[in-house]
Amino acid sequence: KLPIVALVGRPNVGKSTLFNRITKSRKALVDPTPGVTRDRHYDRVTWENKSFVLVDTGGIDDNPEDLLVHHIKEQALAAIEEADIVLFLLDGKQGVTPADWEVVELLRRTEKPVFHIVNKVDSPENELELVSQFYELGIDKLWPLSAEHNYGFKSFMDGLCETM
Ligand code: GDP
Ligand code: MG
């Protein structure tokens, strides 16, 4: 059975962009037809010699903030239950939000591997500045990444596959 890797985080942090980047990198190798499964929320991925199922948990984009926090916590709980590895995305352009605190606390309770990704770090110039906003969350390791522009992508994927 393939490991399940779930993308979790607030709307607009870049979950679907990262989903597309990870699944496209796979398709570039094995599928000559681009864009065939664009709208799917799960896909099988092979990176180096590791295979897994990637799940994009996104969906609701315009809830009031209180419901939103509730929804994201539900999403994170479901991911902890069902996934083998959790990818929690933070928005480097936006910084820490109250919802981030709540989900981080919740994710501390699981023994499963959790990757805390600081997305929208588009180049090395502002990397330290963007990442250091999140030190207050007390996470051992933050993964700077640009889902849109590829910065940090290979190191992250290698790190992810090393846990499998
Ligand atoms: P989701 O709601 O978490 O699935 O977020 P989306 O993947 O739909 O992205 C939300 C917005 O953030 C879109 O406008 C993306 O273009 C933008 N975005 C996603 N990843 C990046 C990134 O790495 N850098 C920048 N600058 N913008 C990004
Ligand atoms: Mg999305």
Overall SS class? alpha/beta
| CATH-derived architecture | 3-Layer(aba) Sandwich
The hetero compounds bound to this protein are:
guanosine-5'-diphosphate, magnesium ion
Following the backbone from N to C, one meets helices and strands in this order, namely: EHEEHEHEHEH
Could you describe the 3D structure shown?
The protein is of the alpha/beta class and 164 residues long. The protein has a single domain, classed as P-loop containing nucleotide triphosphate hydrolases (Rossmann fold, 3-Layer(aba) Sandwich), CATH 3.40.50. Helix content is 37%, strand content 21%. It has a six-stranded mixed sheet, sandwiched between helices. Helix 3 links the parallel strand 4 and strand 5. Helix 2 runs parallel beside helix 3. The protein starts with a strand and ends with a helix. The structure holds guanosine-5'-diphosphate and magnesium ion. Magnesium ion binds next to helix 1. GO terms for molecular function: GTP binding; ribosome binding. GTPase that plays an essential role in the late steps of ribosome biogenesis.
